[in-house]
Write a structure and sequence with these properties.
The complex is a heterodimer. Chain A has 16 helices and 26 strands. The termini of chain A are far apart. Chain A is 33% helix and 27% strand. Chain B has one domain: Orthogonal Bundle (Non-ribosomal Peptide Synthetase Peptidyl Carrier Protein, Chain A). Chain B has four helices and no strands. Chain B is globular, with a radius of gyration of 12 Å. The chains are: A alpha/beta, B mainly alpha. At the A-B interface, helix 11 and helix 15 of A face helix 2 of B.
Chain lengths: 497, 77
């Protein structure tokens, strides 16, 4: 199988009327998805799209997923963007990619016009109204290579400029194989999707549907404020599987939700992106009998790379392992001298590696490097910047970061990105972003003339909500190290005491 | 009430909590804020907020949130 479009075609033939993706407004069957992909794919070809980036700025919905496949049908790759990413991020994506085409709904069109987008705006309804040209689509399919790009997913960059991770078909196909096998998905499974569609986290549910004929329901974001209706939603849709970020699971367990209502159909609960507190996992285990799976993996290696199926009870303070690599992926640890070790930087090799960062050779070369353990022929590995170790049972454990990257509210954030955004606010002279891991609080210490309230208002317009500091303090001067650099440790102490 | 306002202002200094009556509907309080906010309230006021009471109606304003806390404190006594 060269691309996942083959799997979509097979599902559309095998179970045309089965539900594939649904949101609160619309349910798409596998044949609906195939039809939208063929129509909109043909329309893109007619407009002249060729092996290029197609921006998609659309309200998060089932139809948007079908549009991703339309972009592949046209031999192109999609760049998913959402209004909630904030102005800074969207502008820098437009800047870096300069797409000729953007598929946008009414809200998306207004936003792109405001940001001075100069390419052609395509209306999704007009695209899907196009009659499919199977001959043209088949010709494109025949030319597509499994090394061709699938998407650009942007992730936080420490300078403030985000990095565009270039995914490719063979890595996506490999991921579809591995994730569906690990989660043991079959066609009776119903996923509740929590992730936004502009991050690679949403691939799990999408790829399992194509691979196994399972279905996915998009959970409205608002429900992640009200845990009882959230669990009721899972029961109404007879949801059997969750792949959620840790804060979403914690929302349910920490707020005494199981006293009122318990998910009735869950068989699989996978979690990732952050460290799950053993106490919260235990609450889940006590109330919901399911397989619990800890997933770990960087966007640069296409979704997840590593898994641990919980097989014991963890006491407070114990680490839940990240386990072992997926089949067809190797994970190894390198010490400071680039020697194989039982504790060190987590490095990954295999088909799962993406192509690097879009139009960014410098930052690509820093982390996509020749394998130091292989002197014999060129082989690229990805250095995650994460630190790990092998425990006595041989399981991998995540220890922390080599740098200032954090995970907050399910998102990967470089503290430098918040600092860069703060410094673009008038009245801010210097800024230091800090993070308290214990309670997962993102904070900002800054100098300048602007009040905290005004700073937060200004930031709100520029950055996504997960990047907004939950605690902030204005100081006369930032603490410095002996070398004259901002002393992040001291700044953390200033804010959190 | 002052104690509650302090907790809220720490999270969102840019918001006028005495006036704002659509904290949830206007997207000022966002999804995962709510865990931190409730944990703080439970610690500071020594109450347990039942999950069924976590509704936009209770969390849309400082006033309605305070009324909820007060009613929980009463039940406790």
């Amino acid at each position: 199988m060269k691309t996942m479009l083959t799997a979509l075609y097979e599902q559309a033939n095998l179970r045309p009327n089965a539900q594939a993706f649904c949101d609160t407004n619309e349910t798409l069957t596998f044949s609906d998805v195939e039809r939208i992909a063929e129509s909109a794919g043909t329309a893109l070809l007619r407009r002249g799209a060729r092996r290029e980036a197609i921006l998609i700025l659309h309200e998060r919905c089932a139809r948007e997923i079908a549009l991703f496949f339309a972009v592949w049908k046209a031999g192109c790759f999609y760049v998913p963007v959402d209004a909630e990413m904030g102005e800074n991020r969207i502008r820098s994506i437009l800047d870096r990619v300069k797409p000729r085409f953007a598929i946008a709904d009414a809200g998306g069109r207004a936003l792109l016009e405001k940001y001075g987008f100069s390419g052609e705006l395509l209306d999704p309804d007009a695209l899907t109204a196009q009659a499919p040209d199977m001959q043209a689509l088949d010709a494109i399919e025949a030319q597509t290579l499994d090394t061709d790009p699938t998407y650009l997913v942007f992730t936080s960059g420490s300078t403030g400029a985000p990095k565009g991770v270039v995914g490719c078909h063979r890595a996506v196909v490999d991921y579809a194989n591995q994730i569906s096998k690990t989660l043991r998905v079959d066609s009776t499974d119903v996923f509740a999707m929590q992730a936004p569609l502009y991050v690679d986290a949403c691939l799990k549910e999408i790829l399992c549907a194509l691979m196994c004929g399972s279905s996915a329901v998009l959970v409205p974001k608002k429900l992640f404020m009200t845990p009882v209706p959230l669990v009721q939603f899972l029961n109404e849709h007879r949801v059997t599987a969750l792949c959620w970020v840790v804060p979403a699971l914690t929302l349910i367990s920490a707020l005494h939700t199981f006293d009122e209502v318990v998910p009735q159909y869950l068989r699989t609960v996978a979690f990732g992106s952050e460290v799950f507190a053993p106490k919260q996992l235990r609450i889940w285990q006590q109330h919901v009998p399911a397989r619990y799976i800890n997933l770990y993996g960087p966007t640069e290696c296409t979704g997840m790379s590593c898994f641990y199926e919980v097989d014991r009870t963890f006491a407070d303070g114990e680490r839940i392992p990240i386990g072992r690599a997926f089949d067809n992926t190797e994970i190894f640890l390198l010490d400071e001298n680039d020697r194989r070790a039982d504790e060190g930087e987590i490095c990954i090799r295999g088909t799962a590696l993406c192509h690097g960062y879009y139009r960014d050779p410098e930052r690509t070369a820093k982390v996509f490097v020749p394998n130091p353990l292989n002197p014999d022929y060129p082989e690229t590995i990805y250095r995650t910047g994460d630190l790990g170790r092998r425990n006595a049972r041989g399981e991998l454990e995540f220890l922390g970061r080599k740098d200032d990257q954090i995970k907050h509210m399910g998102h990967r954030i470089e503290l430098g990105e918040l600092e860069a955004a703060a410094k673009t606010v008038e009245g801010v002279d210097a800024a230091c972003a800090v993070f308290e891991r214990e309670r997962s609080i993102l904070g900002l210490v800054y100098t300048g003339s602007i009040e905290r309230a005004a700073l937060l208002t200004a930031l709100r317009a520029k950055v996504p909500e997960y990047l907004l500091p939950k605690m902030s303090r204005r100081v006369d001067a930032l603490p410095l190290t002996q070398n004259g650099k901002t002393d992040r440790k001291a700044a953390t102490a200033l804010l959190f005491g | 009430m002052e104690q509650l306002l302090e907790i809220l202002r720490e999270l969102h200094p840019e918001t006028d909590f005495e006036k704002e009556t659509a904290l949830v509907d206007h997207g000022i309080l966002v999804s995962f804020d709510i865990v931190m906010l409730i944990t703080r309230i439970e610690e500071e006021f020594d109450v347990v907020i039942p999950a069924k009471d976590i509704t936009p109606a209770h969390f849309n304003s400082a006033k309605s949130l305070y009324a909820l806390i007060a009613s929980l404190e009463e039940q406790d006594d």
